[in-house]
Write a structure and sequence with these properties.
Length: about 325
């Protein structure tokens, strides 16, 4: 979605005799049965009025994100995002207009959107991450809480769950094959540098990779297995970062507890970035009983990140 503050979008298919409502969100889409315009004129008018509403929530926008526009140019000049702090109290962050949000491409799926904002009390730059997880799965928050104080791992400030749910956008009796309900959550984290691919020197790249590996080891000591080590999930530390925080491991969406049931620990399709996955995980996904995805698979992923840097970059940039 090109509008990062949108939860869903709706449109209308109209022919000379019938019309259908089409709805898209992070779980996919549904299309209403065709209805005759003349027999259901009242419904047709109601739908047109709904799609023309001035209320942002009805149009599918996340109303916790608000913009101010310049009257002359019509461009967005400022913005805010509302969530909760560590004490579950409402807090309004000012969005950084010089840093556009990162939006994961693709209509369906996690739809990760990362906003850059300023903490209203401390003035600290923070990262606010919105993501749509499968409702049957655990959010990354318990792992982030367990990782507090671990060097080389992203640090959480607050978390808000159940911001939205795709079930709420569908009829109560909606049933279709392969449909998966998704829940939107919002987590506020400390802000770090750019992803590893933006390194400016060989020393910076290797230092960041080393500290991210150390962070992975720290996670493992907390019984957390990351499972999604990739070039994009390693950030460089802030300017002048001390050893231990020169590289930051992020994105615990795919993490699991190492003491979980064996069925949960097995290699799973759709987990991780194929380019950086271990040979064992890639080869055995087709098996009826895949092997366990363990810390050695993640270490192999770090090795492929290093190979990516060494073999595909001529120099920084």
């Amino acid at each position: 979605m090109m509008q990062p503050n949108r939860n869903f979008t709706r449109t209308l298919i109209v022919t000379e005799r019938s019309f259908r409502l089409v709805h898209h969100d992070r779980s996919g889409f549904y299309v209403s049965p065709p209805m005759n315009i003349h027999r259901h004129a009242h419904t047709f008018i109601r739908i047109v009025l709904g799609l023309s509403s001035t209320k942002e929530a009805i149009l599918g926008f996340d109303t916790s994100v608000q913009w101010k526009c310049d009257h002359e140019t019509g461009r967005k000049s400022a913005g805010t995002i509302t969530t909760v702090d560590a004490n579950r109290q409402p807090v309004v962050y000012e969005l950084k207009m010089d840093r556009p949000p990162f939006v994961r491409a693709g209509l369906c799926g996690r739809g990760t959107t990362c906003w850059y904002a300023i903490h209203p009390q401390t003035g600290e730059e923070v990262l606010i991450k919105d993501t749509w997880r499968e409702s049957s799965k655990t959010s990354e928050y318990p792992y982030l809480v367990a990782a507090q104080g671990v060097e080389g791992v992203v640090q959480v400030l607050s978390f808000q769950d159940y911001c939205a749910e795709t079930n709420a956008y569908r009829p109560a009796d909606f049933v279709t094959k392969n449909y998966v309900c998704r829940t939107k959550s919002r987590v506020v984290m400390r802000c770090y540098g750019k992803t590893l691919e933006h390194f400016t020197s060989r020393f910076q790249a290797i230092s960041a990779l080393r500290d991210a590996i150390q962070g992975h080891r720290g996670l493992l000591s907390k019984s957390i297995l990351h499972r999604d080590v990739s070039l994009q999930n390693i950030l460089m530390g802030v300017m002048g970062a001390a050893p231990g925080t020169r590289g930051i491991l992020i994105d615990l969406d795919m993490a699991i507890w190492t003491h979980a049931d064996l069925s949960v620990l097995r290699a799973e399709r759709g987990i991780g970035t194929p380019r950086f996955q271990s040979v064992s995980v890639m080869r055995n996904l087709a098996l009826q009983l895949p092997p366990v995805h363990d810390h050695l698979d993640d270490i192999e992923s770090f090795f492929y990140v290093l190979c990516h840097l060494v073999l595909l970059f001529d120099s920084p940039g």
